[in-house]
């Protein structure tokens, strides 16, 4: 049985973001969660789906591979092969606790962390601050598959950005929101392709701060946060 075309047109529309992988994962999860692609049904062909979403087939394959690993879809070979929604879907992740509404967390995070990146780039950093930021960047870039270690080092980099903005209150607020974000991130898989994207985005953020470019620093942080938000909405919003 194929995907219901009525809802597919709305969900499988072109991705409008530079976080194409994360957005593609989110769109596919949304289609599965809403029943547009029901358990056991076959997804459109790679060529068709990539064209509908406006992404490369490489990006689509990466997204499908991530969902195979997470247990949402399965790939079959042969004449009647393709990508099928799993007959038995994974149990839904725990919902955010009261007071940790997803959109509330994501909005506050964007305000705080994008503002921190902009403020840090607007300052003339001391040599010690520049070394601190560079060391935190290298530290998180050195992690591959250890989920807990990656979350820890990722948080440390984001805190370092807040620290070099030279506002103790801002650093405290970023630490608080990172705690809430990490609780949400712990409920979803850590995807290898997302780590690659995050590493590149981290470098862009830090480069803009070190270059003293507040506009570029905010834009780079906005793009980075958008990718994480897309994955959280995809996995947590049923």
UniProtKB/TrEMBL annotation:
GO terms for molecular function: DNA binding; DNA-binding transcription factor activity. Residues 18-88 form the HTH gntR-type domain. It holds the Pfam family GntR. Coiled coil: none annotated. Keywords: DNA-binding, Transcription, Transcription regulation. The keyword Ribosomal protein does not apply. The keyword Protease does not apply. InterPro entries: GntR_C, TF_FadR/GntR_C, Tscrpt_reg_HTH_GntR, WH-like_DNA-bd_sf, WH_DNA-bd_sf. This is DNA-binding FadR family transcriptional regulator. It comes from Actinophytocola algeriensis.
């Amino acid at each position: 049985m194929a995907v219901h075309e009525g809802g597919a047109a709305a969900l499988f529309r072109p991705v409008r973001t530079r976080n194409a992988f994360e957005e593609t994962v989110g769109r596919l999860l949304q289609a599965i969660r809403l029943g547009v692609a029901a358990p056991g049904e076959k997804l459109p062909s790679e060529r068709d789906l990539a064209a509908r979403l406006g992404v490369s087939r490489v990006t689509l394959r990466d997204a499908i591979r991530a969902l195979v690993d997470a247990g949402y879809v399965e790939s079959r070979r042969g004449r009647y092969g393709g990508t099928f929604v799993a007959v038995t879907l994974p149990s839904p992740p725990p919902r955010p606790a009261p007071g940790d509404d997803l959109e509330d967390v994501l909005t506050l995070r964007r305000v705080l962390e994008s503002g921190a990146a902009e403020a840090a780039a607007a300052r003339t950093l001391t040599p010690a601050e520049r070394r601190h930021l560079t060391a935190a960047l290298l530290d998180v870039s050195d992690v591959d598959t250890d989920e807990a270690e990656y979350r820890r080092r990722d948080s440390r980099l984001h805190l370092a950005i807040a620290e070099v903005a030279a506002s103790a209150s801002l650093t405290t607020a970023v630490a608080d929101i990172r705690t809430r974000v990490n609780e949400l991130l712990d409920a979803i898989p850590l995807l290898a392709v997302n780590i690659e994207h995050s590493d590149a985005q981290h470098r862009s953020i830090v480069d803009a701060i070190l270059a003293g470019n507040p506009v570029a620093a905010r834009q780079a942080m906005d793009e980075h946060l958008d990718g994480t938000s897309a994955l959280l909405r995809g996995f947590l919003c049923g």
